[in-house]
UniProtKB/TrEMBL annotation:
PANTHER family to which the protein is assigned, alphabetical: HTH-TYPE TRANSCRIPTIONAL REGULATOR (PTHR30126), LYSR FAMILY TRANSCRIPTIONAL REGULATOR (PTHR30126:SF91)
Family to which the UniProt record says this protein belongs: Belongs to the LysR transcriptional regulatory family.
Residue span(s) of domain HTH lysR-type: 5-62
Keywords associated with the record: DNA-binding, Transcription, Transcription regulation
Region of interest (Disordered), ranges: 299-322
Matching InterPro entries: LysR_HTH_N, LysR_subst-bd, WH-like_DNA-bd_sf, WH_DNA-bd_sf
Stated name of the protein: LysR family transcriptional regulator
Pfam families cross-referenced by the UniProt entry: HTH_1 (PF00126), LysR_substrate (PF03466)
Length: 322
């Protein structure tokens, strides 16, 4: 019976879990509530696992359902990615390729791949935007960019596909003469709260009101990563930065990595994904660029980051970054 599990069943399972009810899942999928309810019952019978507890007003995921939900999401995402990739390959070459690069992405990898892109597609102009947070996704939604490299939104709007490209180490730092560097030992959250935290922000509605990784009630918000870097060097506050952007500062003693409670040495791992519309995936040039960025960026981050931080796989909370 397990061989008979269909992609349609898994899509309904994911929709029902996300929406919190069979009726809401039906509206999302343009199906009837009875069809969703019957499909879930059939899926449970095929798996021999109860996915939802129906004793309350709204169905609730069981513990077993929560475990299998992760597998269902991965299967649906993989199929969507394959379909989008095939559609992009079969399409014609783009007249111009516009892409958005998350400010956390290693710029050295972009420059290296741009050289190869020019040789591979000499007749295709390349337009690159560098944005942060929701600003990296908005041009894709507006149709101004074919895809975006995104590492700073917790959830994506409906209709977009995310394809992992690489990950970067994200660490908390302060200037060498900042009071936090003299704390001695692991710094607790209540001590961090007594100092100004420099936070990266943007003006996109997609990330409005979201404060993830913010540990201090006293914040200065900056819309540019390079401005945040300069403020950190000036001792105006403490905050998080991609390791590859501050590695030289740490090596030369200008910045110090802060040993913060619940954060492993070497930083957290922030996943960078290529994001594009499922209905309009990148064409041949865009697909080529994504694949080359995967190869080049992984080589670059492996060279720039310490071995222990590259091997970690703990996700960083995303949104407005502290």
């Amino acid at each position: 019976m397990l061989d008979g599990v269909s992609l349609d069943q898994l899509r309904m399972f994911v929709a029902a879990a996300d929406e919190g009810s069979f009726s809401a899942a039906a509206r999302r999928l343009n199906r009837t509530q009875s069809a969703v309810s019957e499909t879930m019952a059939n899926l449970e019978a095929q798996l021999a696992v109860r996915l939802f507890d129906r004793s309350a007003r709204y169905p609730q995921l069981t513990t077993e359902g929560g475990v299998l939900l992760a597998d269902a999401r991965a299967i649906v995402a993989s199929v969507d990615s394959m379909k989008a990739r095939a559609k992009g390959i079969s399409g014609g070459l783009e007249a111009e390729l516009a892409a958005v690069i998350d400010v956390f992405f290693p710029i050295t990898a972009i420059a290296e791949v741009a050289h190869a892109f020019r040789a591979q597609f000499p007749a295709t102009p390349l337009r690159l935007y560098v944005e942060a947070l929701g600003g990296a996704v908005q041009p894709v939604l507006d149709g101004r960019a074919s895809f975006a490299l995104v590492g700073s939104l917790p959830t994506l709007p409906a209709g977009l596909v995310a394809e992992r490209v690489t990950s970067v180490s994200f660490i908390m730092v302060a200037a060498a003469d900042h009071p936090l560097t003299r704390y001695g030992g692991v710094i607790p959250r209540d001590e961090l709260a007594q100092h100004v935290q420099l936070v990266l922000t943007d003006r996109s509605d997609l990330s409005a009101g979201r404060d993830f990784g913010v540990m201090s009630p006293s914040t200065w918000r900056l819309g540019d990563l390079f401005a945040k870097h300069a403020f950190l060097l000036s001792g105006l506050g403490w905050g998080g930065m991609p390791l590859h952007t501050v590695a030289d500062d740490i090596a030369e003693g200008r910045l110090v990595e802060l040993p913060i409670q619940d954060m492993p040495p070497g930083g957290l791992q922030l996943t960078i994904s290529a994001v594009y519309p499922l209905a309009a995936p990148p064409g041949p040039a865009g697909r080529w660029l994504i694949e080359r960025l995967k190869q080049c960026s992984n080589d670059t981050t492996a060279q720039e980051a310490p071995v222990d931080s590259v091997e970690r796989n703990r996700p960083v909370h995303q949104g407005s970054h502290g």
